[in-house]
Amino acid sequence: MYPLQRVFLYNFKLNQANKSLIHTCATLRTFWERDDKGGYNTKQHVPFKERMRQGLHELKQEIALWKQEMKEDFEMDPILVNRPGETDIVWKFGDEESLKKWVITSDSDHGEGFSTCSLSLTNNKKGLFSGELSTKVPKDGRIKRAGYCNVKTLRARKSFKRETYLNWMGYNMLVMRVRGDGRSYMLNISTRGYYDILWNDMYHYVLYTRGGPYWQVSRIPFSKFFMASKGRVQDKQHPIALNKVTSFGISVGDKINGPFSLEIDYIGIEFDPNHTEEFAYEMYETPKYMTAT
Residue 60: enclosing H or E segment and its boundaries? Predict the structure, then answer.
């Protein structure tokens, strides 16, 4: 074989080997998703006439919401809004309308487990996040781990279905009045960005409940929340962009089979002038353009 032919054959084999190592399939990319639901999209097609009918039905409500937005813009004063030591309630339970602001999901909703959960009102008009956690794995050869339940607020929006963000820049504390069962619950703050690689960015912290008949007021600094993406804690940490909050959620997935119960009175935010910590975690330097592994 001539030297030129050897070089050509070597390059051809090298190219074939590289093709087998470099994947362009979306399912193998850990930092990119084809859609914002990660394959769990349950949107249904609604005919144009039906959309028009629903839109006209909600027109009066949307106009009233727009008027309220204009009123708040004129009355907004940071000195009056962010008063030290005073809790501004963001979500409070009390009637059926308050339940409509939340979405409840579990692994059984997608055929990936057997956990069940619900969000209801108690006799005292408080929110009750309860259900049954099961770590039993379906025998389909696809699911390896199971056992989670989650409740999450709807995406923040303005009038006429315009998506927006919650602006918590003037606050440094998350305040919750809850009554738990002794389990640990994960608190989730979502800061969905514009680009697909930021869709799954979320900040977490653990809510430890006492159990028993007494209520507890938990005050958690935003500086304690750590960043994760798709359940993976990221090496490169940074504080929450408090002006880009899209939703808030509570999850249970402590791998303990059995019933759980978390009673919620309200969830609010507060400015504590005595808390000066910016971020609680070390900032690791990672090589440029490093991706998830």
Answer: helix 48-75
Contact status, residue 167 vs residue 246, Cβ threshold 8 Å:
no
pLDDT in tens, 245-289: 999 999 999 999 999 999 999 999 999 999 999 889 876 666 666
Question: Residue 2 carries which side chain, given as an amino acid letter?
Answer: Y
Burial track 232-262 (b if 16+ CB lie within 10 A, e otherwise): eeeeebebbebebbbbbbbbbbbeeeeebbb
**pLDDT tens-digit readout, 91-132:** 999 889 899 999 999 999 888 899 999 999 999 999 999 999
**Residue 174 · residue 220 · CB < 8 Å:** yes
Nearest Cα neighbor of 117 from 212, 249, 254, 259 is 259
Q: Is this structure's pTM higher than 0.70?
A: yes
